[in-house]
Each structure stands twice: as C-alpha cells, then as structure tokens.
Amino acid sequence: NMDSALHYIHNDSDLSTNSSFSPEEERKSKVQDVVPQALLDQYLSMTDPSRAQTVDTEIAKHCAYSLPGVALTLGRQNWHCLKDTYETLASDMQWKVRRTLAFSIHELAVILGDQLTAGDLVPVFNGFLKDLDEVRIGVLKHLHDFLKLLHLDKRREYLYQLQEFLVTDNSRNWRFRAELAEQLILLLDLYSARDIYDYLRPIAFSLCADKVSSVRWISYKLVSEMVKKLYVASTSTFVVDLMDELVEKFCRCHKWSGRQTFVFICQTISEDDCLPMDQFA
C-alpha cells in the first residue's frame, strides 16, 4: 500500500506547484494527508530555538539533513508544508546547518522541479554563494548538478559570479580552487562557445597559473576540454584566438613555470585528441 501511495504522490500528472493554492489554502499551509499530521508537526518544530536548548543543540542540523527525504516523501505538491521551515534553516545562525542544506540543495531541486526551484531555491542558492567557505563548498561541489536544472537564461546569470569562487576566506584553501576547476569541466556542456570564451576562459587561465600543482594539473585538463569544445563549435575563430592566447601567455612567458605550463597543456591536448594534428601543429 505504501508503494502504491508513493507512486500516486509522485505521479507527474498529479503534481502541482504552490501557485495553484488559493490564499485560504495557504493559511492552512502545514496540512497534508501523506503522513500523520502529528508526525510532520513534530518534525517542523525541530527549528524551534527552545528545542535546541532542551533536547539537542544539533537538532536544527538533523532537521536540515532529513529535509530532502521529507520533501521526497510528501511530494512536491506538499512543498508548501516545508517552505517556511527550509527558509528558517537556510538563515540559521549555525554555519553547519546552512552547510548541510548547501550540500543537498541540488537534490531538493530535482524533487521540486524547475518552477519551484526557480521561485524558492534560487534565492537560497544565491545566499549560499556569498556565505562562508564552509557553506560555499557545498554549492560548489554540486554547481553543475544545480545549474543544469535551471532554464538557460537563469543559468547564464551565474556566469558573472563564477569568478568570485577564485576568492576564498583562506588563500591556502587550494581544494576550493581544485573543485572549481573540476566543476568548470562539467559546465562546458551547459554554455555556448561565446560564453565559454568570454567567461570561463579567463578563470581557466588563472587556475593554470595557480601556486598549487594539484590545481594546475586539473586546470590543464580544463583548458584541453575547452579547446575541444571550441573546436567543434561552428564559430572556429574562438579556438584559434584561445590557442594564440596560450602561446602568448604561457609559451612566451618570462618565467620557466609558465613555459612548463604550456608544454603540459600541449601534452594534454594531444593525448586527449582535442584537435586534428594539422591544427595542433
């Protein structure tokens, strides 16, 4: 019975967004018929500050950890039951609570669908982008997973913010930059050749000159994938301009490390067959 009930709850033909609720229904926003109401009320009360003092100081974190599972069980048509609680958790004073939500926001977006994601999750996502590094790493690790769920025009808005990931609270936090390089490789599939050239190329070149070798090695792969993507694009001038800049910036660099970077990038491009050999030559 539970299986058939869940199938009914998540049947696409039965899904609706919060836009279909009338003002009267909104006032009864915590009522649903999927699980016992008392059980849901107990869960929602976990954000009450008094519970943290009397029950468990980490109760809000536990609440945040379980929220995607609760949302999946209730179905997106009952998201109105959880929306206020989610926003309360997203603005919690404890960074561990916000970090927990940041690591799962892409999963919640899949559960809620594009309309609810655009209306209710994108503002929270934008807040996490400006948060502490401990919270930002959560959205960075799943940046591609989240952005691919957004419409193209909304997705393009984040091109202007990717540069901000190069700046961290602690400059020694090289894993942050390494994760950025990994995500940019995945993001190449989501953007046009012009967007890649205009916005992702400068970030990639900056990462190629990073002080930490682990970041640089991932960045070589990023540049090679960028070359491949731009080569197959109809506007081939981008790849020529990119290669000219590689020669100018790294091959003719007055530092030996820059010239070494050029050699490693060439190696990666040839090993991954990113270009025909005549074009490579």
From TrEMBL:
Keywords from the UniProt entry: Repeat
Keyword flag Repeat: yes
A single MF term (Gene Ontology): protein phosphatase regulator activity
GO cellular component: cytoplasm
Designated name of the protein: Serine/threonine-protein phosphatase 4 regulatory subunit 1
Organism expressing this protein natively: Tinamus guttatus
